């Protein structure tokens, strides 16, 4: 089936005073796509989302929705909905009235509102919660209500601004699965903002890695992880080792770096050890003198990750570092 564009951004620029926040953003998003804008705090991703929603005016550029130029339209004329990190629920309204609020503004029949609210509560798996007040809900339940409120009008596109940032790790991972399920079930286009690389890699059809008001790379999760185009993307998504020398710049994923004793490789000494997320992470510093025939210089740090906690290696241990040539990724130096 041929893809159809729902959103098109052309040359979006935005400054606040002397600070350029968006520097000529171009982006096309297809109907039914889940695209994540991934970047560190201050890169411009939330401003871009607000531009799409009509909450922020641009200095230059155009926003097209379903082929129509909506650059000058007010938010309520764009038929998109936004979900925020802080939920933005009305504290004096129960769940049913929070979700049905936008339908009441449209003077929708009461029975139709009730039916729509019950249907969307089923989608977010909160049947029976319609009379609860926001103060009686957990963080995860509040976020589900916020999503339900955004979905009750069945908009063609949902904008999500770090919606899981306030949740603990286990609940955040559970909600990632739930949001992806909802998106696939309803076929709604999701534009998702996060600084969490794991979240982006888990959920997205495509990822746009943003830095200083521009996109450094746009591609599938596999493309972004396995074939980063710049040193920044390599480091930001997956924490790759980035090596620079006179001939260029290249990246090596930490899972492709091996440490051993008495074997081949470059001499180094382990300086850091940690265990997290089911992986052992070891960092070693190369010998202090330049290494003949190597693109690496002494004093440079290299990190290796391996599954499990079982290792005989420890801080201060002398090791050799090596990797296979096919795992070396040439990248553009943007640091």
The spatial strand order of the largest sheet comes to: 6-7-8-3-9-10
CATH class of the largest domain: Alpha Beta
Low-confidence stretches: none
In the CATH hierarchy, the third-tier topology of the largest domain is known as Rossmann fold
The biggest beta sheet reads: 6 strands, mixed
- Molecular shape: globular
CATH level-4 homologous superfamily of the largest domain: P-loop containing nucleotide triphosphate hydrolases
**Rg measurement, Å:** 24 Å
Series of H and E elements: EEEHEEEHHHEHEHEEHHEEEEEEEE
Instruction: Tally the beta strands.
Output: 18
Number of domains: 2
What percentage of residues falls in helices of 4 or more residues? Answer: 25-40%
Task: Give a description of the structure.
By secondary structure, the chain is α+β, with helices and mostly antiparallel strands. It folds into two domains: 5-226, P-loop containing nucleotide triphosphate hydrolases (Rossmann fold, 3-Layer(aba) Sandwich), CATH 3.40.50.300; 240-330, Beta Barrel (OB fold (Dihydrolipoamide Acetyltransferase, E2P)). Helices cover 25% and strands 33% of the residues. It has eight helices and 18 strands. It has helices at 45-53, 95-105, 110-123, 139-151, 169-186, 197-203, 221-226, 231-236; strands at 5-16, 19-30, 34-38, 60-65, 68-69, 80-84, 157-161, 189-194, 206-211, 214-219, 241-245, 248-252, 258-260, 266-276, 279-286, 301-307, 318-322, 329-330. The strands form four sheets. A six-stranded mixed β-sheet has the order 6-7-8-3-9-10, with helices on both faces. Strands 13-17-14-15-16 form a five-stranded antiparallel β-sheet, with no helix packed on it. Strands 2-1-4-5 form a four-stranded antiparallel β-sheet, with helices on one face. Helix 3 (110-123) packs across helix 4 (139-151). It is globular. The relative contact order is 0.12.
């Amino acid at each position: 089936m041929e893809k159809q564009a729902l959103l098109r951004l052309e040359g979006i620029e935005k400054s606040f005073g002397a600070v350029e926040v968006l520097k000529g953003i171009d982006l096309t998003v297809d109907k039914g796509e889940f695209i994540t804008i991934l970047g560190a705090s201050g890169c411009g991703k939330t401003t871009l989302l607000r531009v799409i929603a009509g909450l922020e005016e641009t200095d230059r550029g155009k926003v097209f929705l379903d082929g129509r130029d909506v650059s000058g339209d007010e938010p309520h004329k764009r038929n998109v909905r936004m979900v925020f990190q802080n939920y933005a629920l009305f504290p004096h309204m129960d769940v049913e009235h929070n979700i049905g609020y936008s339908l009441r503004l449209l003077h929708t029949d009461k029975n139709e509102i009730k039916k729509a609210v019950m249907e969307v509560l089923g989608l977010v798996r909160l049947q029976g919660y319609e009379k609860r007040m926001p103060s009686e809900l957990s963080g995860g339940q509040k976020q589900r209500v916020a999503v339900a409120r955004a979905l009750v009008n069945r908009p063609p596109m949902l904008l999500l601004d770090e919606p899981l940032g306030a949740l603990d790790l286990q609940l955040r991972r559970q909600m990632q699965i739930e949001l992806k399920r909802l998106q696939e079930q309803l076929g709604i286009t999701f534009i998702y903002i996060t600084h969490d690389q794991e979240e982006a890699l888990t959920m997205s059809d495509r990822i746009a890695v943003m830095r200083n008001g521009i996109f450094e790379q746009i591609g599938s999760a596999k493309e972004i992880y396995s074939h980063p185009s710049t040193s920044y993307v390599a480091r930001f998504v997956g924490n790759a080792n980035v090596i620079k020398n006179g001939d260029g710049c290249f990246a090596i994923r930490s899972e492709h770096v091996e440490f051993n004793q008495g074997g081949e490789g470059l001499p180094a000494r382990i300086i850091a050890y940690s265990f997290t997320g089911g992986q052992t992470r070891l960092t070693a510093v190369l010998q202090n003198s330049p290494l003949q025939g190597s693109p690496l210089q002494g004093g440079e740090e290299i990190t290796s990750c391996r599954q499990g906690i079982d290792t005989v290696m420890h801080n201060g241990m002398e090791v050799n570092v090596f990797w296979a040539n096919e795992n070396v990724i040439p990248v553009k130096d943007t640091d």
